[in-house]
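Hello Y.,

Per our agreement to keep a running log of every chain we model this quarter, I'm adding this entry. I've kept the format consistent with earlier entries: sequence first, then predicted structure.
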Amino acid sequence: MIRPSGINNKLRLVGGSLTFIVVATILISVYMNARSKKDALIINIAGRQRMLTQKISKEVFYNIHKYSTDFRIINSSMNTFENSLSDLINGNSAKGIYPPQNEKITEKLNQVREMWIPFKKNIMKLENNLEKISPNLEIFTVKINKILSLSDNIVKKMVKNKMQGKYIDLSGRQRMLSQRMGLFLKRYLRTSNKEDFAIYNNAKNLYNKTIISFLNDENVKKIRKSILLVKAHINIGTVFKVMQPI
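Predicted structure for the entry above:
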């Protein structure tokens, strides 16, 4: 099981590394533009490096917030950045690119390479964490939808059996609580915010407390089977083992 704190820490590292790389590539682009106005190809490559770091960052945030595990754009951008960086440092005669003749440019390029290595490493770790979380998230989504459906069924049965308003109100609240659990657990997965987990946990405890009160109530015997079915699905040891507090 992957804790969201792992993803959050990787995201901070990626963000910090990205800031340095963007600044460095901007400086290189400006410096090359001043020193090599006639070499449009090199200037274009240096400028594209800046765009690629921004593109990688955007795709990382998209994958996290959309729970996507499609890393094709990220990996393609990283490969292009890495190959272009190698061309700028070492030259590539086939492309008409030659190693920089200025020590300051070489120094800046080497700084970018030093920052790129941990940046890429953190991106790869982040991808690995997202891949591990994705199956758990899918399972959770299916189960929370099932709980919502079963909760809705209890409300309908209480109405059909003309039970007192307090029971219908409580069962209606159960539907809201199941949605609340789903919303804040997903938010916690994205943000690692302990307040989100606390809200989820409170909703979960209140949901269970109401289920237990129904099972111990003589007036609810007519729909006891439906409530037991919900309790089987709401078992905290299985359904909500997707996430634990930090």
